[in-house]
Amino acid sequence: MGFKGFEIGSHVGEKSLDHRDFWPLYKVCEDLQLLLFVHPWDMHMWNGRLDKYWMPWLVGMPSETAQAVCSVLMGNVLCDFPRLRFCFAHGGGSYPIIRGRVAHGYKVRPDLCATACSTPPNQLDHLIWTDSLVHDPKCLDLLISTIGEDHIVLGTDYPFPLGELEVGKVVVDFWKNDEKRSKILWKNAINMLQLDENLLKK
């Protein structure tokens, strides 16, 4: 049908993205070169201490996304499907700030963390993609150092309140170099979606 990819949630019921039930889906997506855009949902934080201050969206969503990233990295998904492309919303959530902690945990507790994948997560995270919706140039700097400037695409979260009020402003504020800006503003998306740039210009 010409689709380049589609959006999925960060889990299905109690099954995270490393669940073997999803292997047939991943195989088809890899064969058809389809991108999977992962957006957090159903954060299970509607009651208790996180039932104030919009915490499910401010804290729950970044945490949920980080859990999805870790499931993919430590669940052997990218090793079994090396051509499969995942793009995680909101700059990968809180994953960039806990990257070192996850890598350290994998090293010191392999009995708990290295049960499915023999490759450390910080040696695989350059294979994932994220959008740029981090709201802060300092956060964008951390994200770039985590997955690389070539694997970040423009994120807007339109039309939701947590979207950028001025689309692309964080990218523009971060980089004064037009060539660098262009990567995140549009060029990386062309590569991620495997589009023909020449056809887009016609």
Can you describe what's shown?
The chain has helices at 23-32, 55-74, 77-80, 95-108, 110-113, 137-147, 169-174, 178-192, 197-200, and strands at residues 5-9, 11-12, 15-16, 35-39, 85-88, 129-131, 152-153. It is of the alpha/beta class. The chain has a five-stranded parallel β-sheet. A two-stranded antiparallel sheet has the order 2-3. The chain has a single domain (5-200), classed as Alpha-Beta Barrel (TIM Barrel).
In short:
This protein is an alpha/beta fold. The protein has helices at residues 23-32, 55-74, 77-80, 95-108, 110-113, 137-147, 169-174, 178-192, 197-200, and strands at residues 5-9, 11-12, 15-16, 35-39, 85-88, 129-131, 152-153. It has a single domain (5-200), classed as TIM Barrel.
Overall shape: globular
The figure for the number of domains is 1
Structural class: alpha/beta
> What's the CATH architecture name?
Alpha-Beta Barrel
CATH superfamily, called what?
Answer: Metal-dependent hydrolases
Kindly provide the name of the CATH class: Alpha Beta
| Number of strand elements | 7
- Give the termini separation: 22 Å
**Segments where pLDDT lies below 50 for 5+ residues?**
none
Largest sheet: 5 strands, parallel
Q: What would you report as the Rg, rounded to the nearest angstrom? A: 17 Å
Element-level helix/strand string: EEEHEHHEHHEHEHHH
Task: List the keywords.
EC 4.1.1.45; alpha/beta; decarboxylase; TIM Barrel; single chain; five-stranded parallel β-sheet; 202 residues; hydrolase activity; two-stranded antiparallel ribbon
